[in-house]
Amino acid sequence: MPNEVGEEFDLVVIGSGPGGYVCAIRAAQLGLRVACIDKRPSHGGTCLNIGCIPSKALLHASEVFTEVSHAGDMGIQLGKPKLDLPAMMTYKENGITGNTQGIDFLFKKNKVEALHGAAVIVAPGKVDVSLLDGGTRSLTTKNIVIATGSESTPLQGVEVDEKLVVSSTGALEFDAVPKHLLIVGAGIIGLELGSVWARLGAEVTVVEYLDRITPGVDEEVAKQFQRILQKQGFKFLLGKKVTEVKPLKASVKVTIEPAQSANESANKSDAEKETLSVDKVLVSIGRRPFTEGLGLESVGVQLDAAGRIETNGFKTNVDGIYAIGDVITGPMLAHKAEDEGVAVAEMLAGKPGHVNYDVIPGVIYTAPEVAWVGLNEEELNQQGVDYRIGKFPFMANGRAKVNNTTDGFVKILADAKTDRILGVHIVGPEAGNMIAEAAVAMEFGGSAEDLARTCHAHPTLTEAVKEAALAVEDRAIHM
After folding, report:
1. CB 326: neighbour CB atoms within 10 A?
2. Are residues 203 and 296 in the same domain?
3. Which residues form each disulfide bond in the chain (predicted)?
């Protein structure tokens, strides 16, 4: 429908990732007339198209590949599995399509008007859209929600061609398993994608500027996680930085030097430098808000020094313009964006919208998984909080033993006086599912004793959570 003007909406959402599409649907459920715009030909944003969903598809497929390799240990003789990478990529694409089409269905069901094209805020209450089909739309609206997400942070001096030197997007599209994959950055995304290719046969080297992996994760958990990944073949170069990435015809030459503090000399000797020749380089040093081309400057929306949209209760400094998800402060997590989307929709419908930022879980979807919610020990110590620790290893869990998934533990941190749960940290099988129990308990101000006195089915992995809660008072049964 080209060149249509003057269409009135209660809400226009820019971006149909987890935050945007959830916001649009919830607002429509509450009776608002809603349009949702996305620059891609399919809905779902980074998460569904080139992030959460395709990476989890490959993580699952590669984990099955590994499990089949060890099926003989359980008396199942299958022989050595053969990898069909094109078929695995088709499996991934089918998963993406199924999810994005699901959003199409939900939009139709809830009468959300969906548009595909580049949106520009030309004035408060007015959004112009350059549609992918070549047409244009001009929308008028009472409110605008910016939910445009984030993009990979570039490494200065390194050009990403998505062939030899790739972002997370390119690492989901390899047409062959690299013999040697070098990952710049030991964060969540890099370690997940590294796990995929390590399982399928790649040698994986991770270069990290800091002296530890997964910054922000509880230090004890991170150390255990690193040991587990090293057993799986990962090589870590910590306290190092990549100073040159030189693509060749079919390989990449990477120069690595010790990370340098401010008071060190900028001149490094050749003896301190290390050069590696690898097949692929994945640059995974974080993500940054995506706000380019939205017209924010022209309408006066303020950004902070990190390029995030400044908000107060999701409101920007411009009346009628709101922002959620990766473009505002806080962890760049799909589920955080979803909760913010619901909160804004409910606020616009006259209801009290709220997000509890103290209870937002994080998960690393490797094998084993890592999950956490609340504060870690380093944060509690910095705040001077007196706390107790309850820890239980999966080695002592009956289900983990028979499943041969005994790496890791559950750790519960509880207030020393009130017993209120302050943080829960898990490294182990299905940690991402198990953390939900802890999140529910914390949402309602639960104590370690509340978890300890809750009957858990046997034999389950979640019994490790109960035992860790018991261990807060030194009364775990199975250790």
Report:
1. 30
2. no
3. 47-52
The mean of the pLDDT values for the chain is: 96
Task: Provide the b/e sequence for 117-132 (b: ≥16 CB within 10 Å).
Answer: bebbbeebbbbbbeee
Q: Which of 253, 285, 317 is the last residue of a domain?
A: 285
Q: What is the pLDDT of residues 274-307, one digit of tens each?
A: 999 999 999 999 999 999 999 999 999 999 999 9
Q: Is residue 355 part of a domain?
A: no
477 within some domain? no
CATH code: domain of residue 54 = 3.50.50.60
pTM of the model: 0.95
Partners of residue 118 on adjacent β-strands? 130
Residue 303, marked binder: no
pLDDT at 270: 66
458 an active-site residue? yes
Q: Check 43, 60, 180, 458 and give the catalytic one.
A: 458
User: Is 58 part of any known ligand binding site?
Assistant: no
Distance CA 434, CA 441 (A): 12
Tell me if 4 is assigned to some domain.
no
Number of domains in the chain: 3
Q: What is the mean pLDDT of residues 225-234?
A: 98
Q: Are residues 108 and 182 in the same domain?
A: no
What percentage of the chain has pLDDT greater than the value 90? 95
- DSSP of 215-264, one letter per residue? TTS-HHHHHHHHHHHHHTT-EEEETEEEEEEEE-SSSEEEEEEE---TTS
Q: How many CA atoms lie within 13 A of 170 on its CB side?
A: 18
- pLDDT score of 268: 57
pLDDT single digits (tens) 61-107: 999 999 999 999 999 998 899 999 999 999 999 999 999 999 999 99
Tell me how far apart the alpha carbons of residues 165 and 151 are, in angstroms, rounded to a whole number.
16
Q: Residue 257 annotated as binding?
A: no
60 marked ligand binding residue: no
Give the residue numbers spanning the domain of 110: 9-152+288-349
Beta strand extents in 264-345 (DSSP E only): 274-278, 280-283, 287-289, 321-323
Give pLDDT tens digits for 344-377.
Answer: 999 999 999 999 999 999 999 999 999 999 999 9
The encoded tokens of residue 183 equal 């990952």
Q: What is the mean pLDDT of residues 220-236?
A: 98
Q: In what order do the strands lie in the sheet with 409-415?
A: 362-364, 369-374, 421-428, 409-415, 387-393
| pLDDT band, residue 267 (cuts 50/70/90) | low
Per the CB < 8 A criterion, the answer to whether 336 and 360 are in contact is yes
3-state secondary structure of 87: helix
